[in-house]
Amino acid sequence: MIHLTGHQYLYSMKRLLILTSFIALFAFKASAQTTIPAKDAAKHIGETVTICDKVYGTKLLDGPNITFLDLGGAHPNQELTLVIKGEDRSKFTGKPEVDYKDKNICVTGVLVDFKGKPEIVVSDPSQIKLAADDSKK
């Protein structure tokens, strides 16, 4: 059994507290997401972000059943494209191309570059929330 003096015990506890605080701060920082405007999406490729903006245009490709939502402008001038793949559409209770059109939404996900344009692949409805001004409509 190891016996510590009062001073050694306080020193050990202080080190433990500092280490625990550092780990907690790092974990919080790693899980925090950045909120950015759609116009800045291209500057954050590879990052997990939240973007709030209006859905200006939508499109459903019937064959592969892929949904596109255009934020920050209508296609081809959108600032960001959201993509909902066919296998993920069944997770939505309605039709995303209808339900979100002309609505202000917030989306959270990883920004990727697709042919020079920023894109977020939405695999779960929880990634999209109606913005406060549209949630009451």
UniProtKB/TrEMBL annotation:
Residues 1-32 form the signal peptide. Keywords: Signal. This is Micrococcal nuclease. It comes from Mucilaginibacter mallensis.
